[in-house]
Amino acid sequence: MANNKELDALLQILSGEQTIIQRTDQKAFTLLSILGAFMVFFIVHFTKMQLDMVIFSLIMIYFPAAMGTIYFLVRVLIPRVRGAKELNDNPDEEQTEDINPTFFAGISQFNNPSEYAKYLKSIANDEKKLYKMFSAQVFSLGLINQRKNNSLRKSMVFFVTALTSELMIIMYLAYLRAYSYLDDRIYQFIYGIIILSVIAITFSRYDVITKIRKSLNI
Asked: Where are the domains of the chain?
């Protein structure tokens, strides 16, 4: 029999899993909004571009990456998960699959509200069944979160690829327009900016400053 502490712990886990689902969905919607804004900007200026081999190659990277981002973000919002079947624990009874009354798939199997209320009441009166019901819900939410996070990670790879290729197209177009105005000293500044950017990203990525302070006891 499950005691109150075990049930409270299970409910806390359930609440945490539901919070993770909400945050993951918010991240997916945010990425879709950002991608949509950049795609509108890209499509508006696409007709003004003079295509050459560099721009064409970057476009061939951009569009598949954007489509991959959309696909995996949709998979985040609508994950395909198959939960484990729940069988009753009584060995004397015929092994049948239990209905999970906490999800719409299980709720929709009842013919009317009275039948659903009766089934839910029978579970609520049995602590073991009640604990098993919430355990099944936590397990299902865990599977959903795993699929959502895997799809979100994959979408981030495609998103960064699409965004990087679009920014490279913009930089290349800016270079073509300003080419006649540039001299040799400009290239030195460009190389310096690139090197400083790489150093800044490396320092922030590996938290080098904090590690140096710790080593010097500052």
From this structure: 4-91+127-182, 183-218
The CA dihedral of 146, 148, 151, 157, to the nearest 10 degrees, is -100
Q: Rounded distance, CA 196 to CA 199, Å? A: 5
Asked if the model's pLDDT at residue 101 lies above 70, the reply is yes
Tell me if 141 sits within 8 A of 17, measured CB to CB.
yes
Query: How would DSSP label each residue in the chain?
Result: ---HHHHHHHHHHHHHHHHHHHHHHHHHHHHHHHHHHHHHHHHHHHTT----HHHHHHHHHHHHHHHHHHHHHHHHHS----PPPPB-S-TTS---BPP-TTSHHHHTTSSSHHHHHHHHHHHHT-HHHHHHHHHHHHHHHHHHHHHHHHHHHHHHHHHHHHHHHHHHHHHHHHHHHHGGG--HHHHHHHHHHHHHHHHHHHHHHHTHHHHHHHHHT-
Q: How far apart are CA 81 and CA 141, in angstroms?
A: 10
Q: 67 with 181: CB under 8 angstroms?
A: no
Model pLDDT for residues 17-67, shown as the tens digit of each residue: 889 999 999 999 999 999 999 888 888 877 778 888 988 999 999 999 999
CA-CA distances (angstroms) from residue 6 to 128, 131, 149? 11, 8, 27
Side-chain-facing half-sphere of 89: CA atoms under 13 Å: 6
Task: HSE, CB side, 13 Å, CA atoms: give it for residue 59.
Answer: 14
